Amino acid sequence: MLVASVIAVVVMVGIARFSYTPMIPEMVAALGLSKSVVGMLATVNYAGYLTGAVLITRISDLGLKVRLYQLGLVVAVVSTVLMGYTTNVWLWFILRFISGLSTSAGMLLGAGLLMSWLIKNNQKSELGVFFSGIGLGIVLTAVTAELIKDPFTWDQQWVIYGLVALALLIPAWRWMPDYRACALPKRGQPLVATSAVDSYVSCNWRTSAPALAMWSRLPFWWLLLNPCPSFRGRAGWSGIAGLSATPACWLWDVFSRRWGQWLALYLAYTLNSVSILMLIVNTSLASVMVSSVIYGVSFIGIVSMMLAMVGRAFPENPSRPMSRLTFSYGIAQMMAPAVVGYLADVEGNYTNGLWLTLVVMALGVLMLHLARRAKEREAEPALSP
Fold this sequence. Notes:
Elements: H1 2-15, H2 20-31, H3 35-56, H4 62-82, H5 89-120, H6 128-148, H7 154-174, H8 194-202, H9 209-217, H10 235-259, H11 261-281, H12 285-313, H13 319-347, H14 351-383
Organism: Marinobacter adhaerens (strain DSM 23420 / HP15)
Transmembrane segments: 37-56, 68-85, 91-115, 127-145, 157-176, 262-281, 293-314, 326-344, 350-371
Pfam family, one: MFS_4
């Protein structure tokens, strides 16, 4: 089941979304695409991802979620293949938007369905293994790009990516469990077996009514500041980040289990800030590569731990709070390239954009700290005799 979930992430996130990164220089060289078109293709993909996140917040029917998750797998393959069969920019925009919808299905519906399955089957409600699929997907697209960039034209390369996705879709579909049997009772009813509750406690969470009530009142905007800097333009660099992110998901789960999720999140944010600061101080190849490794390790930890955190707090419908957090993620992905690009045009470099990223990162840590304090204050009355 876990293998099927990881493969699905590779298809719907790794290939459907990140295959565009190594394809940028190929399409620019072959077709002479302008920077504005290249940027817009990325933006509409983010827009599709954001739209999917919003729509998922409105869905509570488990059967519909499963059908949309399966549809996302098919759409990931089709939207990738069709990119190689047209040179119409508007059709590209539509395909990248649809691909973004598929990515939101893989990330959010997939994570929510997996969380429900883990709870229902008395397993540790952790998503580290699941999110390792992002890193694996980035590595797969980077390696594939190196293998096919010389023998094949840009349009053939898109088709090859789609065929790889199709090959992976088969085991992801065949090994997919019956998620419809994982429906959990609504809040206020008995939630899960004792062993599952014990697994919650081992992750520093409790499923008592006061704790759930507290989380329903906790302002989500305190958790929404999470800048997502990325390194674009070179397939090899994206592969380095993905390679480091792959084992990091599991390692962050181990760390948070031992030392607590709050400390793990603080550490992940600190490491992410270090990776940004390194690019400000030194832009040599060695510095960029080390920064990419640290970034890959830290960003996947922030994403997986934060989504798992809110997913455990709302086990009867984990996709909804996950989608709310992802909504802000999508906004940042749409806004940040435009803001940083403007600053780069004005200043002639990315230094000010990186400093701005560090400022937003600091605000995110502050919001995280406020959320922790609010949780502790809300929990005190429930713990008092």
